[in-house]
Write the structure tokens for this entry.
Amino acid sequence: MSDYSIGISGLNAAEQALDVIGNNIANSATEGYHRQRIELSPSLSVREGSLLFGTGVNVDGVAQVIDNLLEQEILRQYSSLGQVDRELVTLQSLESVVGEFSSEDRGLNAAIDNFFNSMQDLSTNPTDGVWQNQVVSDAEVLAGQFRTLGEYLTTLETEIQMEVDNTVDSLNSLTSQIADLNEQIQRVEVGGGTAGNLRDQRDKLISDVAALVSVETQSRDYGVVDVIIAGIPVVMGAATVELEAGLDSSGQMGISVKGEANYTTSVSGGAVGGLLALKNDLVFDIHNDLDSLAVAIIQAINELHVQGVGSAGSFTELTGWKMLSEDAADFGSGVGDGSIYVRLTDTSTGEATRHEIGIDASSDSLTSIAAAFDAITGLNATVVNSKLSITTDAGYEFDFLPAVPSGPTGSTLTGSPPTISVSGIYDGTANDTFTFTVSGTGSVGNGTLQLVVTDSSSNTVATFDVGSGYEAGEALEVGNGIKIALTTGSLNDGETFEVEAFADTDTSGVLAAVGINTFFSGNGADDMAVCSGVSSAPSRVAACLGADMTDNTNALRLAGVQDETLSSLGSLTCGEFYRQLVTNVGLEVSTRDTEQSNIELIVQNLESRRDDISGVDINKEAAELLIYEQMFQAMAKYISTIQTSMQSLMEIL
């Protein structure tokens, strides 16, 4: 009886081995399939007397030929490749857009140059309407280029968010399928069966998950595998947890268990990792840099523009833009403690007076600033719909020109002093007060009479001989663009007079922040525009700083912004900063391109190693097929021989 058992066990083993080999051959082209092999062991021996006899062969099971460490590394590289692929596609698209906008003859880089060049051209003809119109036209092109690129980035960020949502939905679908297969695998293997094909299907789905996000797996009994994403166990046996994407309190995008809104932003690997890196870092940084450039140009131009006037002259009315907050402390980083100096002109007499409005950024508001303007006779100021509006009474005009006064702003001269006239345009870098102290006593043009000039820090700036040798009315160069001249008259030793000089008539930054006499509006690239008061009236381009309003001083200062190194741009000029932005995008693309090639090579090598270990070699399977075919035939012949022997024995008996 044991002879038949040995034969039957051999036939059974050969039959099952042939099934396994057939399954391997049938799946030789199936992606993710791992070669299977039959595991055989000798049956327990039996003792007869002093001898041990074998009882045949046992089929212990069917096992997958798999290197788990290698499979884990392949999953990790799939995740890395998925992230780099996703980042590279978007960055290449962004590079083409930024590259177009940075071309030499068009785009943002050219628009920046054209705007400043037109401002330089205006400085040669500061009252010419043709050049004023050209400045406005080039400024509108510049703002339009910023808006186009800013809107593109905003749209791209929105599309990335939508793609993250869709990808997370795909993840939820995959994890649900993995859980279903876990249940099937467990049911088969608890019953003593093998579920190699089901395991391969499940592992292929896990590979698909790895292409979408970095994944960790934990093996359990009966072939069950748990799946963890970003520290969240999304598959636990046959149970699943759904994920969702969203923004955290700081605007960073992440993923969370659905309904909990506890978003994890430090998610890496796969398309999700790439999309989050783009949304939270790469595209965000590029958009932030573009906004920084737009804001830097807006602020630098506006801070100079608010002080000047165009050929249209001074104002009878100015209205700022709508403020989100009326507290000065919330006006922006460019606002601090300081003073606003407004110049009020009586149009009937031509007399101009300058009035100081002190600003305390910690306590002032739009309303208190309006009240300070309103307190000046001839001016009216209100806040309507969070906008500061300044108007004049009939017969008055106002501006913020730093023009030097026609005469001294303070004096202790007595007797019959000369008439002192002041002229020029101050080109110093800081507001100053020059004090002229008389040395000696006598009449102008006679004796050894002198004027000693000191600045606000009591440093001696100049000493003038206005006694013998000085011709009344002769202009004296004080320095920094200021001149004085004296008529005949008497001066007494120790007497003084003062001349105020302004480099900045708004040291608080409030005027530019609230939109009074500004050139550009906007809070970044997306909404940058030329202010309507300038675009509708190019004669309001503030090219002048002098009292006669025909000079080109402010136009030169505005054009000079192009070559200024701005602290908000990392001490780079506008052009340098944008070129660096474009270069950085190119470097990111180059880096990702190199990473992609390297990872693809690693994946190729790992998959080649996996094929060597787990892949199906048709030739080897054919050889195995021949072995088990011969085994089957031999066992059949063995049983036939046993049967013949038994029949012969029975005939003898």
